[in-house]
Queue: 2 jobs
Job 1
Amino acid sequence: MPEGKRENWRWEESRWENPDIDWKKGKAITVGIDVGSVSSQAVILVDGELFAYSSMRTGSDSPNSALNAVNWAMEGTGMTLDDIQYTVGTGYGRVNVPFADRAITEISCHARGGIYMYGPTVRTILDMGGQDCKVIHCDEKGKVVSFLMNDKCAAGTGRGMEVFADLLGVPIGEVGQQSLDVDVEPEPVSSTCVVFAKSEATGLLRSGWSKEKVLAAYCSAMAIRVKSLLDRAGMEEDFAITGGIAKNLGVVTRLEKQLGVKAFKPKYDTQIAGALGAALFAQALLAKEEKEEITIATDCP
Amino acid sequence: MLANYGYNDGSGDFFITIDTDKCMECEDKPCVAACPVEILESFTDDYDDHVVGVVEKHRNKIRYSCAPCKHASEERNIACQKACPFEAIKHSW
C-alpha cells in the first residue's frame, strides 16, 4: 500500500487462547460464531470455560467469514471442526453459518455473553455494534427482559466511527484517546446522520478546528445519540457496554458523564460478547440433548 | 420480555413494543390476522416460547407500514391493539 494511503478505519483483528486448558481432556467443546455486519467472532468453550476466540473483519461472504473466524480461533491448537460438538450461529449472518446446529438472535446472545463477561449483577447491556446499537435488559442468568435495537441509521455505530477515522486520518484505535485531548468540550456535531456529521466536520476543519476538537465533537454526538436510546429503553444498574465502540474511551467517558453512571470495565475483548453468548447457548443445548438421549436410552425396554 | 421493534432516526422514534410474556398466554394471537398489512407474525423465540413479533422487512419502515391504522384526520383505530385481548401491544407514535 502506498505511503499516505493507510486505512485508518481498519481496527485490529485479534486472537486469544487460554494456555491453561488442554482441550483434549474436555468433555464438551462448544462454539459460538457471531457473523456481524462489520466483524465476525468465534468463541470456543471447553466444558464451559473460555478456551479461545478470534475477532476479524466480516468479508462479503457470510459462510466464509464464519469459517475463517473459527479456523483462526482453532489455529495451532490441533482442534478441527470435527472435534466441535455443538455450534450456535448469531449476528446478521447467523443463518449462513454452514456448520451451525442452531441460530439464535444476537440480542439473546449478547445478554448471555454480557453476564458471563461482566458478572450477574449487570442489568443493562448496551451493545454498540458495527451497524446497529442495542439496549438489552436482562436478569442474573442472562435472560432478556427487554430490548430495543436501532439499525436504521449509522449514527451511533462503529461504521460511523470508521468514517470519521478515515476523514481525519486518525487510526481508529486512537480516536477515543485523541478526542479527550481538548481543553474545552466543543459543541457536538449532528447526531442524526453520519453523512451530515461528516460534511459538518469538514467545514469545522476548514474553519480551523483541530482534529482532536472535531473528534471530541463527534464522540460527543455519538454519546448523545446512544443516550437517547437508553432514555427510551430505561437504565437499570449495573451497566455494561459491549461491541467495538466499548473500546473507545472518548464515547464511553462522555456517555458515562451524560448518564451519571459508570460502565463496568471490560475484562475481555468487548467484541466477543455475542459469540461468547452463542457458545454458552451451545453448551446448554448440548447438555440438554445429551440428557434427552440418556432419558430415551433409559426408557427403552 | 418487552420487545421493541422499530427505529429511531432524524424524524423521531417509531417503536412497537410487544409484551411477549402476555403473548405466551394467548393461544389464538388474533393481532396477527387483524393487521391489515401483515406486519405481525407469530414465531418461536430463542427461549422456545411461542410469541408475536414484527416481521423483519417492516421493522425499519413501520412508520409507513402502520400508516393505514393512523389516519391523521380520523380517530385512531389501531387494529393490532384493538385485537389484542391482553393489551400487550403499544405504539410509540
Note: Residues 20-25 of chain B form the longest helix (6 residues).
Job 2
Amino acid sequence: MSALLTVRGLDVALKTKKGARTLVSGVDFTLEPGGAMGILGESGSGKSLTCRAVMGLLGEGFTVSGRAEFQDRELLSLPPKAMRALCGREIAMIMQHPLTSFDPLCVIGDQMAETFRFHLETSREAAWEIARDALAAMRIADPGHILTLYPHQLSGGMLQRVMIGLTLTLRPALVIADEPTTALDSVTQFEIMKELVRIRESGRTSLIFISHDLGAMRMLVDTALVMHQGRQVEYGPAQAVFNRPQSDHARYLIETRNALTSRFLAYAGRRAGLDRERGCCRAAG
Amino acid sequence: MRRYVLSRLLAAVPLLLGVSFLAFVLVTLIPADPAEVALRVNEIIPSPELIELQRKELGLDQPFWERYVRWLGNSLRLDFGHSYTNHHRTVAGELGRCLPATLSLAGVSLLFVVGASIPLAVASAMTRDSLFDRLVRTLVFFGTAMPNYWVAFLAIWLFAVHFDLLPTGGDEGWRSYLLPAFTLSMTYISTYVRLIRNTMLAVMQEPFVLYARARGLPEAAVVRHVLKNSLQSSLTALGMSVPQLIAGSFVVENIFAWPGVGRLCVSAIFNRDYPVIQAYVLMMGVLFIVCNLLVDIISAMIDPRRQAEL
C-alpha cells in the first residue's frame, strides 16, 4: 500500500524587509494510511507551521518549497481553489483554541452547516440535519439546541467536541490535531483524548498529532517526529524515539519529562507514605 | 435588555439638560445686548427707551435662571419663540421648513459613505499591499487631509463651471445632490475605508478565520465572516456619522446654497438671531445624544456576546 502523505525536504520561509527568513527547513516524513504520527517540540519550533504549509493555509509572505505528496497529488503545486476543496474534506484540522476558532457572531449550527453545504453540496436544511447527526455521534446531549447557540455560550471542551464532530462527519483521510488539548482543563483533556483514541482505533483516518505533551502523545502515536528551532531533529517509530532518543534535543525533552514524572511520583509516594503513618486517608489530607 | 435601554435613557437625561444649558448660556455670553440687536436687525435706531421696551418684550429683564427654565419648558414643547429678524415666523417653523433639505442631503451622503467605503475597504484589505491597495490608501490620505470647503470649490469649478455638467448650487432635482453629497461624504469615506480595512486585516488574524479556511470554506465565505465581524466593530463609528453628516453640513450648505438648517443657522449667526441659534445648537446636541444612544443600543442588540450580559 502506498503512503498517504509523503513530505520531502519541506522548507518554509517568511519574506521580510531584510530578506527571506527560514522558519522551517528540511522536514521529511511518511505517513501510512491509518497511521498516527506525533510532532513533538517546544513552542515556536515550527510544528504548526509545518502542518499549515502542507494544508496551504499560510498567508501571503510565506514561501513553501519541497514536496508534499498526498494520495498521489502534489499538494504544494495544487491551485489554491483545489487545495481549499481538499481542506476539511480530505485533510481536516482540529484547532488548538476551541473558544476562538468559531466566528463569534454566528451560531454553531450555521458554521457547521456551511461546511457541509460546501463539501457535500446539499441544501441548508439537509446540512443542518447532518450537523445535528454529527453532534449526536459525539454523544452530545440535545444537539438541536447546541446548534442554535453562539460559541461564547459553550465551554471549550464542548466546542472541541463540536470541532471533532464536524471533522469526522466528512470522513477525511487525514486529521491534523494541532495541540487540541492545550487550552483545556485536565478532565476535559482526558475526554478529548478518548475521542482522539476513538478516531485512531476506527482505522479509517490517519492522524498527525501536534503536542508538547509527551504523555498524551504516548497514548496515540506510532511514529514520532521531534522538532527544534524549525529543524527536524529526530524521526522514527514512537517507542524508539521515546525510549532511546538519539538526538540531544529529543533526549533533553524526554529526560525532562521523565524527571518531572518521577519527581511527581516520588512526591505523591512520600505524601501517601506520610498519610499512612498519620493514619488518615489521602482524600482528607 | 430592557434594563440596559432604560438605564441608558436615564443616563441621557442629565446629558440633555447639560446640552440645553450650554446652548442657552453660550449664546447669552456673546458680548452684545440681544435687545439692541433685535432692534438693529429690524433697522430701528436703538434709543435707551426702545431698548428697555424691547428687553421687556423679549423677557430679558427677568433673572437668568427664570429665563432658562422658561426657555427649556417651551423648548420641550418645540416652541422656540419667534425669529428676531422676522416676527411673523416661529423658529420651529423655520427649522421645520429647512430640515427636510438637510436630512435628504445627509441621507444621500450616508448612501455615498456606505456604498463607497465598504466595497473599497474590502477590496483594499483583500489585495493588501497591491497597487490597488496603495492607490486607495493614498486617496484616503488625501481625502482625510483636504478640507471639504476647499474641495467643494474645486468641484464646483471643475464640474459646474469648466465642464458645465452639474448645477453650482441650489436644490434643482437629483443632479444638485451630487456635488454637495460628494464633498460632504468625502472625509467620512476616507475615514471609514481606513477603519474598515484595518479592522478587516486585524480580524483576518483571528483563529476563527484560519479555522474557516481549514474547514475548506471558499474564500468568499471566509470574507463574509471577516466582514461581518469587522462591520460589527466599525458600526459605532458608522452610526455616529449620521449626526455628524447632519450637523457638519452647514459649511457645504453655504457653499452650494443648499436650503437647509445649516445655512439657516449661519444666516442667523450673521443676523444675531439668538432664538434660531439656540434652537439649532440644542437640536444638534440632542441629535448627537440620541444617535449615540441608538448606536449603543443597536450594537448591544446585534452582538450575541453582549446580549448575554444584558
Note: The CA atoms of residues 132 and 143 of chain A lie 6 Å apart.
